Amino acid sequence: MAVKLIVEGFDRFGGKHCETASLKKTLDFHGLHLSEEMLLGLGGGAGFIYWHTKSMSSPFIGVRQGKVAEILVTACRRIGAAATVLETGSPGKGHEQLIGMLKEGNPAICYGDLAFLPYFPVPETSHFGGHAFVVFGLDEEEDKVYVSDRARKPVIISVAELQKARASPFKPFPPKNRLLSVGYPRKVIALDSGIREAVKECCAGMLTPPISNMGLPGIKKWAGLVMKWAEHFSAYELLTYLINTYIYTGEIGGTGGNAFRTMYAGFLEEAGLILNKPLLKEVAGVLREAGSIWAEIGAAALPENQPALRLMRELLTRRYHVFREQGNEAMPEVQEIGVRIKDEVERAVAELQNNGATLLLQGLKQKILECHAVEEKAFRLLERVFTIN
After folding, report:
1. Are 18 and 131 in contact (CB under 8 A)?
2. How far is CA 342 from CA 59, 60, 68, 236, 240, in A?
3. Using CB atoms within 10 A as the burial measure, which of 185, 264, 266, 283 is most buried?
4. Could you report the per-residue pLDDT of 277-327, keeping only the tens digit for each?
5. pTM of the predicted protein model
6. What angle do the packed helices 70-79 and 18-29 form, to 10 degrees?
7. Cα–Cα distance between 327 and 51 in angstroms, integer?
8. Are the CB atoms for 364 and 226 separated by under 8 Å?
9. Distance from CA of residue 142 to its chain's centroid?
C-alpha cells in the first residue's frame, strides 16, 4: 500500500551548512532553539584535512572537525539530546526506517550523495555522500519526496532519486542510507561544560593533530602539494581540483562561507557571553581575518586574470545562488548553466595548458601559507584563553 506522510507544521528551509542546518531545523520544530554557529562549535568546530587516495577521483579538502554525522551526534550530546546514527546497506530497509520516523511525526535528517540529488547545483562527478538534508514528507502514490535543504524553499524529488542518493556507493563518504535518530529533550541543558570541552578538542585538532594531513600541519602540507598538481595530473584533472578547491573553501560548499571560519567565530562570540570570557571576541576577530583569506584561496584557484577560469567561477556561483533562492523553481536555469559549464571546460583546460599553471599554483600556495600563519595565531590564542582560567 502506497504511503503518504507529511509532518504537519514543518516550515523551515535554508541554512548555512547542511548538517548544522538540518539539526537546527529539527530542533526548532521541537521548540529547542540554537544557532547553527553554536551547533557547529559544540559538534567539533573549524578544522582541516587534506585527503587523497588512488580510489578517489580528486583530493578532498575538509575544513571542519569531526567525521560525517559525528558532528551532530556530538552536538546533541552536549545539549542533552540522545542521537543515534542508523546505517544499512539495504535501500529498502533504509526507506522503511525513514517511513518509521515520519510516522512518529518527526522530520528526518537523511544523508545522501550531492551528485545524485537532482536539484543540487554541483558537477555530476562531484560525489559527496556526507550531505545532510531533512525529509519532511513522502507521497508514494504521487512519487514525491518533500525535502528541506539549503534552498530557501522546499524541493521535491522522486522516491527513486532519494533512494539513489542515499545508497550511493561512491567514496570517500558513501552515505549508507544513513539517518539520524534523535531523542529530543524538553529543554537544552546548560552549555558551559560542553563549550569548554568542544573548544579544547578543536584546539587539539588544529594544533596537535594525529596525522600530518590534518590541522595546521595539514594546511602547510597542502601548500606544498598544490605545486605538484600540474606535474602529476593532466590539465583536465587539474581543472577539477581547482574547481573543487573553490567549492570546498567557499560558500558553495556549504561552509557558511570562508571555510567555516566565520561560523566558528560566531560560535566563539556566543561562547564568550555564556562563559564570561571577553577574550573570545578577540579570537573571533582573528578567525574572521582567516576566513577572509580562505575566500581569497577560493578566488586564487579560479583567478580573475584567467578569463575562462573566471567565467567558470562566475557560472558556478550563479548556479548556486539561483538554486538557494528558488529551490525547485530554479531547475531550468540550473540545468542551462550546467550546460554552459560543460561547454567551457575545453576552453578552461586550454587556458591552463597555454598559460601554464605554475603562476596560478604559486599564487594559491602563497595564499594557503598566509592563511596558515593567521590560523596559527588564532588557535594559539584560543588555547591560551582556555588555559589561563
Report:
1. yes
2. 21, 22, 30, 12, 12
3. 264
4. 999 999 999 999 999 999 999 999 999 999 999 999 999 999 889 988 888
5. 0.95
6. 40
7. 32
8. yes
9. 31
Q: Are 148 and 12 in contact (CB under 8 A)?
A: yes
Residues 132 and 18: beta-carbon distance below 8 Å: yes
Q: What are the CA-CA distances from residue 366 to residues 186, 236, 345, 363 (Å)?
A: 50, 23, 26, 5
Q: How confident is the model at residue 93 (pLDDT cuts 50, 70, 90)?
A: very high
Give me the sign of the Cα torsion angle 46, 245, 363, 256: negative
Instruction: Give residue for cell 548555512.
Output: 16
Residue pair 152/12 in contact (Cβ under 8 Å)? The answer is no
Any alpha helices (H) in 64-147, and if so which ranges?
A: 70-79, 91-103
Number of residues that make up the chain = 389
Q: What is the CA radius of gyration of the chain?
A: 21
Cα separation, 154 vs 135, whole angstroms: 10
Cα 79 from chain centre: 22
- Cell 570541552 locates to 197
Report CA 272 to chain centroid distance, whole Å. Answer: 25
